[in-house]
Amino acid sequence: MSQNPPELRPDLAPRARIDIAESAPRPHQPRIGMVSLGCPKALVDSERILTRLRAEGYAISPDYAGAEAVIVNTCGFLDSAKAESLEAIGEALTENGRVIVTGCLGAEPEYITGRHPNVLAVTGPHQYEQVLDAVHRAVPPAPDPFVDLLPARGVNLTPRHYSYLKISEGCNHKCRFCIIPDMRGRLVSRPVNAVLREAERLVDAGVKELLVISQDTSAYGLDRRHDRHEWQGRDVRSHITDLAREMGSLGAWVRLHYVYPYPHVRDLIPLMAEGLVLPYLDIPFQHAHPDTLKRMARPAAGSKTLDEIAAWRASCPDIALRSTFIVGYPGETEAEFQTLLDWLDEAQLDRVGCFQYENVAGARSNDLPDHVPAEIKQERWDRFMEKAQAISEAKLAAKVGRRIEVIVDEVDADAATCRTKADAPEIDGNLFIDEGFQDLSPGDIVTVEVDEAGEYDLWGRLVS
């Protein structure tokens, strides 16, 4: 069976980062390590688990050697993700020996214990209490009530200046290639006032960019019948439009991920034109041919989507569109794939990711006829990415000479690594400042003039 290498997978979060200074334990303080795999939604779960552990008196270890037990938060999105999770569990067992497994792959405990029978416990996705119980059994807590206070923004596994904000769990779609609803259940949205309180706390703690995530962001609040809650004296619906508008008033960049192209998405575009929300939409189109989409059980059609894209750009010319696609889906003919290439030519998306179809245990697509041979999947992926790269290069070249705002992610001896409003962390491109950057710090938002463009990245100079 062909499997996607990690660099081709669309489900990866930025690498989890543990602040070594903050994680230094006091004498005799129990220490727990964390390996977080998979998507940003799993990264948020890891942050919640570690925040609870910190409040209970545990120190967070940045390495295996310093930990008395290790939690591995797994991914089960694709068979390649499952293989990566099993490998990570094995490494943790070798390096530490005391391992607690959680996350999406934990929904299949026999799959894990069949390969690694010596793990201490296995829990499923977002089962926080069960994870804590397993930690208590393995490493009893020893809290100090004078120092173990819940930090204002909890434990963060991303840099201090941006944070993922999960607004719901689960998904109501039944895409044939996806088993996430089976692992994480149907849509369960958080109350809008709870989400906004968390967003406000993050911004007050210094976060400059909020990355809104869920399995289906545009469906937020549907399960709650878009109920209303009071927020700062206003009556606000649990609805993505209301949530985005209120979040945009907090003073941070707001970036929307995993947005299905429902008709009401067009109501978000004026918020982007006004500057309340970043002009950026991450929409998983997956394909363009109607027959392929039908076999995928996807709720979209390529021609209608092109009309929506044109309307979005008419309302907000600076909007950046990001999407992911699957090539080599069962039954995909050369004509269907050519339709996808033609659609991409017309859509002119700014940021594109693509992965080759692979079977996933439990997915209904496994039983479809006419699976595409591995060599054809690879050839189509190469052609797709060649076209996507050419589009990206042309779009970036058009930015040369423009003045734009960027956020600084990292500063080293050579340059400041930044992102434009069209770039999400670690999945899109960067803008580099290699002169006069020495006084910049991560989290700074500055204006630059673009003076060079590549296939995926930009270079610029500071504007005084």
Automatic annotation (TrEMBL):
Q: Give this protein's Gene Ontology molecular function annotations.
A: 4 iron, 4 sulfur cluster binding; aspartic acid methylthiotransferase activity; metal ion binding; protein methylthiotransferase activity
Entry-linked Pfam families: Radical_SAM (PF04055), TRAM_2 (PF18693), UPF0004 (PF00919)
Q: Which residues form a coiled coil?
A: none
Residues that bind [4Fe-4S] cluster 2, according to the entry? Answer: C171, C175, C178
How many cofactor units bind, and how?
Binds 2 [4Fe-4S] clusters. One cluster is coordinated with 3 cysteines and an exchangeable S-adenosyl-L-methionine.
Q: Kindly give the InterPro entries that the UniProt entry links to this protein.
A: Elp3/MiaA/NifB-like_rSAM, Methylthiotransferase, Methylthiotransferase_N, Methylthiotransferase_N_sf, NA-bd_OB-fold, Ribosomal_uS12_MeSTrfase_RimO, rSAM, rSAM_horseshoe
Keyword terms: 4Fe-4S, Cytoplasm, Iron, Iron-sulfur, Metal-binding, Ribonucleoprotein, Ribosomal protein, S-adenosyl-L-methionine, Transferase
The family database entries (SMART domains) matched by this protein are listed as: Elp3 (SM00729)
What is the annotated localization of this protein?
Answer: Cytoplasm
Catalytic reaction list? L-aspartate(89)-[ribosomal protein uS12]-hydrogen + (sulfur carrier)-SH + AH2 + 2 S-adenosyl-L-methionine = 3-methylsulfanyl-L-aspartate(89)-[ribosomal protein uS12]-hydrogen + (sulfur carrier)-H + 5'-deoxyadenosine + L-methionine + A + S-adenosyl-L-homocysteine + 2 H(+)
The Radical SAM core domain covers: 157-394
Q: Which cofactor does it need?
A: [4Fe-4S] cluster
Positions of [4Fe-4S] cluster 1 binding: C39, C75, C104
Using the record's annotation, list all stretches that form the TRAM domain: 397-464
Residues covered by the MTTase N-terminal domain: 30-140
Q: Which family does it belong to?
A: Belongs to the methylthiotransferase family. RimO subfamily.
Q: What's this chain's function?
A: Catalyzes the methylthiolation of an aspartic acid residue of ribosomal protein uS12.
Protein name per UniProt:
Ribosomal protein uS12 methylthiotransferase RimO
Source organism: Brevirhabdus pacifica
Upper lineage is: Bacteria, Pseudomonadati, Pseudomonadota, Alphaproteobacteria, Rhodobacterales
Q: Which gene encodes it?
A: rimO
